[in-house]
Amino acid sequence: MAASFTIGVTVPRIKLGVEGLEVSKIGLGCVGMSATYGPPKPDVEMIKLIHHAVDSGVTFFDTSDFYGPYTNEILLGKERKKATGRRLIEEQGTAESKSFFFIFLHHSLDRFLLDYTDFFAASAPYQALKGGIREKVQLATKFGVRMKGDTLDIRGDPNYVRDACEASLMRLHTDYIDLYYVHRIDTKVPIEVTMGELKKLVEEGKIRHVGLSEASASTIKRAHNVHPLTAVEAEWSLWSRDLEQEIVPTCRELGIGIVPYSPLGRGFLAAGPSFIQNLCESDFRKRFPRFKAENLEENKKIYESMCGMASRKGCTPAQLALAWVLKQGDDDVCPIPGTTKIENLNQNIGALLVELSPEEKMEMESYASSDVVKGERHAFMSHTWINSETPPLSMWTPHK
């Protein structure tokens, strides 16, 4: 299906939170570049995508120390030099370089050169956030989640908060983080304790704004009482709407921005069941309940309905799904769809031009009502907002 909403789009700017972090109306989720959704993508291609995003007006980038782990932050902070085999030949043109190229042709030369560029003094600088780009973008990263075997280990104690921040600053090669999220809530530590350390990091200039991810309304309120929250990141899409009853109203009451992750239903609302069925074995989405065979058979009807409306409106299903999220709030909602392809990024930006009448929004919501969607939205539901209450501060005993 051709996308007609892709050209001549100016990406608006909005301000998140009472402290006014200015970001592009659409952000870019970076996790798929390095981890989770199949093998890591070539750094050179991902850096081109990042530069294209900035040139297109998308300046809000979302990562985490959990992605890789660590490699996604390293990609965004990359300060090494880049020289592909082709460029090396074009720039130096020597017999020696050509010989080198052919020797390593079948040994992933581009990857080799990215990791060992000290050998090539003539190669050009190639950074994800090179030459003034850092000042144009807003970097959001997260902490608090580690894998221990097949289980998630959640940490929010003060020492861990500080150590994680210092490590992220080093990997990102930056002096400050624009928005630092608690990735998941440590239910063993009062949220006031975690927020207290984050407040210190703000005062020290290491982070500028604080956010929570997958937090309940009561946890949001308690955290906000310690230090103003700029944003709450939560899964929000046409078929994932469990935050609407309490979390969204709480954020709006307190003036907190909302950053929807997976606004395209982890790719399903953009590409449908065949896309999910063809995922590689290392793709984490294969573990999600909605993509199990018995649920996928029912859920494909949602995508089919989306395709019908998208065809009538002259846009893609992805643009339609993203437009629905964008219409949930003109000045306090900033979705962060992820992609590894420039074409898909352009389509996502084009969603800004898709208009939806109240009747069309209601029709779309009927496609994916709670009784229609089959399967839980997440593979680790126990680590989402539904289980994010923390002990009262009075119960906290600091470790010596």
TrEMBL record:
Pfam families: Aldo_ket_red. InterPro entries: Aldo-Keto_reductase, NAD(P)_OxRdtase_dom_sf, NADP_OxRdtase_dom. Gene3D superfamilies: NADP-dependent oxidoreductase domain. This is NADP-dependent oxidoreductase domain-containing protein. GO terms for molecular function: oxidoreductase activity. SUPFAM superfamilies: NAD(P)-linked oxidoreductase. The keyword NADP applies. One of its GO terms (cellular component) is cytoplasm. Residues 25-82, 128-365 form the NADP-dependent oxidoreductase domain. It comes from the Eukaryota. The keyword Lipoprotein does not apply. Coiled coil: none annotated. Keywords: NADP, Oxidoreductase.
